Task: structure prediction
Amino acid sequence: MAKQFDVVVIGAGPGGYIAAIRAAQLGMSVACIDAWSTADGKPAPGGTCTNVGCIPSKALLQSSEHYEQAATHFSEHGIEVKGLGLKLDTLIGRKDSVVKQNNEGILYLFKKNKVTFFHGTGSFVAQVDGGWSIKVSGTSDEDLVAKHVVVATGSSPRALPGLPFDEKKILSNDGALRIPAVPKKLGVIGAGVIGLELGSVWRRLGAEVTILEAMPDFLAVADQQVSKEALKAFNKQGLKIQTGVKIGEVKATAKTVTVPYTDASGAEQSLAVDHLIVSIGRVPHTEGLGVETVGLKLDERGFVVVDDDCRTNLTNVWAVGDVVRGPMLAHKAEEEGVAVAEHIAGQHGHVNYAVIPSVIYTSPEIAWVGRSEQQLKTAGVEYKAGSFPFLANGRARALGDTTGFVKVLADAKTDEVLGVHIVGPMASELISEAVTIMEFRGAAEDIARICHAHPTLSEAMKEAALAVDKRTLNF
Result:
């Protein structure tokens, strides 16, 4: 006898588990299916983000930053460190502990909100009376019937053609989080978020890191001024970043990975490394979902086709997160999960895609929301720009981290904030003020008139907003 639910969510990543919890809060009977497992076979909900993405990478970034601070910067504070050593297994173990805490936290939230969790792979069987027949294949198989189904199956790392991940020499984000020893030489293909963050981790721990990027410009997705400032900082740290390269046929042996490539000048080059991280993007994960069985429509790139409200072509079937269009960001998936649950409940869920922030957790951190200067110019939008350097910020000086700046872009006539771009300390936290202002369609003057505590990094946001009107007070 099939178990009946109002909503069945397939996938317990940020989009899936949040959709399940919100639907349960709204009074629906909810089940969530997820196949992630720990090394000992226990459930590990949280998807890529919790298990091999956002959470473990931030744990390693934190640990590696402590190590680098102790090695190179503590002396500035009069702190002497003698006999500094690195226990990599302890460092990796701490990362695993952080992941486990998050896994267990999600299972607790399911229990608290009365969401029924099934450990296994969920797939469509057929449309039936009462909704959709869903099969769970796991430690024990289950048959479910759902009035509504939310597909939240996430994404998988994209491999180079003819070069599958073995997670020993050729690494995805997964293998890059658990290299057993600090490599002497590490190669990274792709200078996006994953490449920069994981490259930074291993550089801080002592590896010589070379990042090869196919695009002619570094971090073209960000504001040009921000990208230039970040590149300057990364080069100073010792990250070797080459753009405009064309990768040849990579050869991997038990000891070495050889990467032939053509550099931006057209010269033939070769890079020999101990490990190679391939971070050239991610692809939607629909394998085993039963897409063909029920006729769930995918686009030419394999994404589940949805409308503005995340409805698919099938009645009462929804999809959120990395498996649909839009930025592959955990917080975007969460917002879609909430919106879908509210739509199912007859409410008016909504996601404002224009104000979804992007963050890169390197040092300096990089964060932005809204449009960049180049995007505004291309669109022919008249704007005003104001920026303020952390070099002139008292808290940044006290922290000993004055790299970067805050830039505010506002409409030339209305003063509405159109974009905010930050490179510098704690950019990931500072960007939230900009998101809030833009969500309420606030003006640069609004930021400038708000009292910011002193001394704080957030004062740089206030000063950048003042700079839009050419009236900074501290620069």
